[in-house]
Amino acid sequence: MTVVRERPAPASPAPSASSPFTRSQRLLGRDWRLAAVFIGPTLVLVAGLILFPIADSVLTSTTERHGAETVFVGLDNYTALINDSLFHKGVLNSFVFTAYAEIFKVVLGLIAAMMLHHMRRGRAFLAGVILLPWVVPTVVTAFTWRSLFDPIFGSVNVLLTDSGIGPVLASIGLVDRWPAEWLSDPALAMPSVILVNVWKGIPFFTVTFLAGLKAIDSHLYEAAMVDGASPWQRFVNITLPGLRHVMIVTVLLSSIWTFNNFDLIWLMTQGGPGDATAPYVMVAYSKAIQQLQLGAGAAVTLVMLPIVAILVVILVRMMRRNDLPGAGDLGRRRLTPAQRKAMPWVIVVASVLLLVWASPHIVWKAALVLGVFVVLAAAVGRLVSVLAARGNQLAARVVSGTGSGVALVALLAFVLAPLYWMTVTAFKSDDQIVARTDDLWPTPWTTQQFTNLFTDRAFGTWYVNTIMVSVASTAIALVCAALAGYALARLKFRGSESFTVTILLTYVMPGALLFIPLYQMMSGIGLNDSLWSLVLAYPTFTLPFATWLLVGYFKSIPADLEEAALVDGCTRFGAFIRIVLPLAKPGLLAVALFTLTNAWNEFLFAFVFITKDDYKTLPVGMQSMIFGDVVPQGQLAAASLLISIPVVVMYGFGQRFLTEGLTAGAVKG
Length: 669
Hints:
about 75% helix, two-stranded antiparallel ribbon, mainly alpha
């Protein structure tokens, strides 16, 4: 007998407790209203000054100016670049300039970092001294080296001739003739500007590599020494793998900056002689600003966007690798061990072959110079290893100390010599500069150059303009970055991850992609030849970095302190003002220091937006002091000294806060 049972009706769900969140909060996030207030200013600036101008640049690149009218031409500006020899030369120059500069900065920066890392005393002081080339404004770097390279008034040829090095360089073919014409010889102009970029970039590489060396576990070296590993084996198997992540991030970031460099090359050679040093950014500037063909100039920058985008995407993945669980191993799972081992060599071989094709007249000279550094370092390391293996520890320490000392003296001489030349030239009289008497010492010391600078030039006006623009743009960036950084670090809302990635992307986005659409925007709203144009434009490169650093710093502050304040009746905004901001003082000071100095040193936007003498900033004003072949060496040196002193002083007093802010922000963020 079959028993048929009635199917029970489905049980109705028990009434759940009412959710503490509204429907909008469940959809957009618990703190979306407050997040909108905190992120709103940054979102408006990023969208209005970065994202919209880039989109507008795409539209501009499809137009062409015919007289007073602008007509749509589709892809004609892009197709015209196929047969544009100047554009081809500019791209090739940018690649050559970047590749050689990065190679030398990596090698020399690594050598300098390892020397400082093994120092027991004076490391902080020497690191601060080595940082000076990176701190001083680019305009100071350009004019100082331009003065040194001058075949008539400079000291490079004199010192190399007196030491006998110059004729040797000519005899082995590193220079075609002696005395050399460093910036007017097409064969020497590119190596000269590469040298200056290396001089300015070594401190950045040294400091980042030094931080990476400190993070390597010392027990690994001790275990390797117990196992009998030589210094070279320890370097290859411990140091290089330990620095891999830092090295990749540093090289990518520096490559983006170097590939899009404009100010250093323009101030030193203006792309000459001929087009021997003109990068693609200068080609875009020439078409857009000098020839008033904004569409053609925008096309030049946008054609290079895929290359920059590839570097940016790789950099973003590397910088965010530690933020996402397992993200660091994603690339490892896609490659076999043999492929990972071969990948660096494949990249090196491909780069060398490309350099041989792009610059056959430079590649062997660079290889010779680089080989000298590498062979000397390897020889000293090998000698120390042999002496240590034979049990002669005293001799090994003497050889190691002597080699490091000589290398350190040479590095300091290379770093400080241009700054010394700038300082003594500022206190020379015009007669002494022209007569070339006592090149390395003023006889007598005089303040004539400083007096002429303020009486014959609008230097005081330029100084005031620079202070006003720097302070105003720093205040905007600091307020907006503090609000947005706190929201991204603490508040819960939908889209926070995407906005964080957007901030990082805009942080590494080069100004070369923005100066044409921003110039068009400022012209449209009537702000060209106005300090307001600079105040609005400077957050494009200061705000993203400031926000990114403060996100990491706010994350390092314990959230329990805010929760305690909220329990005591404080509002979220009140906790932000009373609890978080006081604790974030080092991060805020680090951000203020970076944004202020970046605004103080900026050249490209000020050069494009400002033409009237009354509104020029210091870098552009100094550039306008040169009329054709007439270069006021003394006044430029005095101006360089006056523009550098505030930056050096700020870094000197803020070094402790800078280190703490970067450690908690850039590393943890």
